[in-house]
TrEMBL record:
<comment type="subunit">
    <text>Homohexamer; trimer of dimers.</text>
</comment>
<dbReference type="InterPro" id="IPR050105">
    <property type="entry name" value="MoCo_biosynth_MoaA/MoaC"/>
</dbReference>
<feature type="binding site">
    <location>
        <begin position="113"/>
        <end position="114"/>
    </location>
    <ligand>
        <name>substrate</name>
    </ligand>
</feature>
<dbReference type="GO" id="GO:0061799">
    <property type="term" value="F:cyclic pyranopterin monophosphate synthase activity"/>
</dbReference>
<feature type="binding site">
    <location>
        <begin position="77"/>
        <end position="79"/>
    </location>
    <ligand>
        <name>substrate</name>
    </ligand>
</feature>
<comment type="function">
    <text>Catalyzes the conversion of (8S)-3',8-cyclo-7,8-dihydroguanosine 5'-triphosphate to cyclic pyranopterin monophosphate (cPMP).</text>
</comment>
<dbReference type="GO" id="GO:0006777">
    <property type="term" value="P:Mo-molybdopterin cofactor biosynthetic process"/>
</dbReference>
<dbReference type="Pfam" id="PF01967">
    <property type="entry name" value="MoaC"/>
</dbReference>
<comment type="pathway">
    <text>Cofactor biosynthesis; molybdopterin biosynthesis.</text>
</comment>
<feature type="active site">
    <location>
        <position position="128"/>
    </location>
</feature>
<dbReference type="InterPro" id="IPR036522">
    <property type="entry name" value="MoaC_sf"/>
</dbReference>
<keyword id="KW-0501">Molybdenum cofactor biosynthesis</keyword>
<dbReference type="InterPro" id="IPR047594">
    <property type="entry name" value="MoaC_bact/euk"/>
</dbReference>
<protein>
    <recommendedName>
        <fullName>Cyclic pyranopterin monophosphate synthase</fullName>
        <ecNumber>4.6.1.17</ecNumber>
    </recommendedName>
</protein>
<feature type="domain" description="Molybdopterin cofactor biosynthesis C (MoaC)">
    <location>
        <begin position="17"/>
        <end position="150"/>
    </location>
</feature>
<keyword id="KW-0456">Lyase</keyword>
<dbReference type="InterPro" id="IPR002820">
    <property type="entry name" value="Mopterin_CF_biosynth-C_dom"/>
</dbReference>
Length: 158
């Protein structure tokens, strides 16, 4: 259940950034996942390393890391946090590429948005790298899969 005091609206209904100054600093981690669905031809090119634009998976990893770091610039009410670490995973599967991102911080609020943004930006970068080969690429199923730290404790998607 959500704390009713944690709202992004003030008493007049105006948007505001939630004040987290009274919250305890704790180690917090969040993991998100998603996928890019691709044609069999594109998957074969990724596996062989023959994507015309270059190493699409490396670009996706770096873009994901950058996305996590830039999250408060992209999401209007997101707190700027000192991100301690970001790991972006890319795994080629028969249907395309499975993406994951784990973000860590030692702060007063969580890094779920940073993990989601990392996966989203990694997916966008991957699509950009393969669009000449597969114009039908689809980014899908972006979701938080786990979080830890903070007052609400640990959570894992079943």
């Amino acid at each position: 259940m959500t704390d009713p005091a944690l709202t992004h609206l003030d008493a007049a209904g105006n948007a505001r950034m939630v004040d987290v100054s009274a919250k305890q600093v704790t180690v917090r981690t969040a993991t998100a996942a998603g996928r890019v669905l691709l044609s069999a031809e594109c998957v074969a090119l990724l596996r062989s390393g023959d994507i015309p634009k270059g190493d699409a998976l490396a670009v996706a990893r770096i873009a994901g890391i950058m996305g996590a770091k830039k999250t408060p610039e992209l999401i209007p009410l997101c707190h700027p946090l000192m991100v301690s670490g970001v790991e972006v995973g890319v795994e080629i599967v028969d249907e395309g590429v499975e993406l994951s991102a784990t973000v860590r911080t030692n702060e007063r609020t969580g890094v779920e948005m940073e993990a989601l943004t990392a996966v989203s930006v990694a997916g966008l970068a991957l699509v950009d790298m393969v669009k000449a080969v597969d114009k039908r690429a689809v980014i899908s199923d972006i979701r938080v899969t786990a979080k830890s730290g903070g007052r609400s404790g640990d959570w894992r998607r079943d």
